[in-house]
């Protein structure tokens, strides 16, 4: 939790925390989400819950889903604010048509999280951002150093994990946008 608090302290007025622990059972995820919500609230930043609609509803947070999850979930169980991960412009359009508030598109650059899987690149990101009117956030290999290219490709914001969770937070400057 110390690292989550360090990240939260750097995100004030600049971002949110998306709690993605898809391998945890819902009960364990719910306990972790409770702690992260406490930290996020202390720093006045949003917490987005991943995968579990009931946890998002209980904590009054946005919900983030994968496209396969979205296709299976009853619309009545979705909170007011929700988004979805997409891997094509067609999926982004489908998500927007279903009422998504935002999409996360990726992976843009090579990343250890997707070792051996070729990145989709900036042209893919431009295609997605040009295909929908809702915000598109980029994910995958995003760093402070390459975030300018991502914003230039039309992204409303960036999602960073490795640099935040493993790097020296105090040595990093945040991207100019979200």
What are the salient characteristics of this protein?
8 helices; TIM Barrel; 2 domains; globular; 40% helix; alpha/beta; 178 residues
What does this structure look like?
It is a single chain. This protein is of the alpha/beta class and about 180 residues long. It has two domains: about 1-60, no CATH class; about 65-178, TIM Barrel, CATH 3.20.20. It is built from eight helices and seven strands. A seven-stranded parallel beta sheet has the order 1-2-3-4-5-6-7. α5 packs parallel to α6 (about 120-130). The protein starts with a helix and ends in a 12-residue tail after the last helix. The mean pLDDT is about 90.
Q: CATH superfamily membership of the largest domain, which one? A: Aldolase class I
Proportion of residues in helical segments: 40-55%
Number of strands: 7
When the domains are counted, the total is 2
Query: Which architecture of the largest domain per CATH?
Result: Alpha-Beta Barrel
Number of alpha- plus pi-helical segments: 8
* Gross morphology: globular
Low-confidence stretches: none
Radius of gyration: 16 Å
Give the H and E element order: HEHEHEHEHEHEHEH
* Ends apart, CA distance between termini: 23 Å
- CATH class descriptor name of the largest domain: Alpha Beta
At the fold tier of CATH, the topology name of the largest domain is TIM Barrel
Neighbour order of strands in the largest sheet:
1-2-3-4-5-6-7
Estimate the strand proportion.
15-25%
Taking the sheet with the most strands, its summary is: 7 strands, parallel
Mean pLDDT: 90
Structural class, by secondary structure, is alpha/beta
């Amino acid at each position: 939790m110390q690292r989550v608090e360090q990240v939260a302290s750097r995100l004030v007025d600049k971002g949110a925390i998306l709690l993605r622990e898809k391998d945890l059972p819902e009960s364990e995820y719910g306990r972790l989400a409770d702690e992260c919500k406490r930290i996020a609230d202390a720093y006045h930043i949003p917490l987005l819950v991943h995968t579990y609609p009931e946890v998002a509803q209980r904590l009054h947070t946005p919900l983030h889903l994968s496209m396969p999850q979205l296709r299976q979930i009853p619309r009545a169980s979705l909170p007011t604010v929700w988004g979805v991960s997409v891997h094509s412009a067609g999926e982004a359009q489908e998500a927007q048509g279903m009422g998504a508030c935002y999409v996360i598109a990726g992976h843009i650059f090579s990343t250890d999280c997707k070792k051996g899987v070729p990145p989709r690149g900036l042209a893919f990101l431009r295609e997605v951002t040009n295909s929908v009117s809702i915000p598109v956030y980029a994910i995958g290999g995003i760093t402070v150093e390459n975030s300018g290219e991502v914003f230039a490709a039309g992204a409303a914001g960036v999602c960073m994990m490795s640099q935040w969770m493993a790097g020296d937070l105090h040595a990093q400057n945040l991207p100019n946008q979200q």
